[in-house]
């Protein structure tokens, strides 16, 4: 099993409406063990109601589709992203005023064994592991507001997919471009390393607003508190370093 904590915050900033949306779904224990917990941030495009509808539609569809599937988790996640893309396209076609709407998407799926990341657009996902903070995503954009990939932009969407091991103590930040573009890598790293999840989330958004972001600012922080061993006992953050050292010592001899 895996123990997870999450918090999110989203502010309108200087825009007339907030088109950013967050989603989190931690199912009951049996489903959590088999399918994991899903977190996502979407930044809608298309102005006013259109952008909000796009991000709402994408996240609702993503969660519902993923947990309705039975194939392996990575295939189910990929399929859920495509389903979200088609849902945004379909919604846009129903209303003439929404024809240009689209959305970015960053989705993080955590199981007891692996972390899966699906990325489309110019939102970002950062990972803090043992004090080291790095960006796991590559912007699909030629510049700010010039996306090369989005949900709703084409019939087929090609998300970047990343898979890696889960380590107790890992912290993930999912954020919209309105947040990361106003902050330096050093500022993001300092906040993620020094503050608890709730204060870190609030501080990142407040810093973006203070620095004069020109967009909505959204942050979602997900902490891996513990990961279960095969025997069922949980490995906490403090213990994980010792476990890894003991494994290395046995391999070395």
Task: Please explain how this structure is put together.
By secondary structure, the chain is an alpha+beta fold. Helices cover about 35% and strands about 30% of the residues. The chain contains seven helices and 14 strands. It has helices spanning about 30-35, 50-70, 75-95, 175-180, 185-195, 195-210, 235-250, and strands spanning about 1-10, 20-25, 35-45, 100-105, 105-110, 115-120, 125-130, 130-135, 140-145, 145, 160-165, 170-175, 215-230, 235. Strands 1, 7, 8, 12, 13 and 14 form a six-stranded antiparallel beta sheet that branches. The radius of gyration is 18 Å and the shape is globular. The protein starts with a strand and ends with a helix. Mean pLDDT is about 90; it is low at about 235-253.
Observed structural traits:
32% strand, alpha+beta, six-stranded antiparallel β-sheet, disordered C terminus
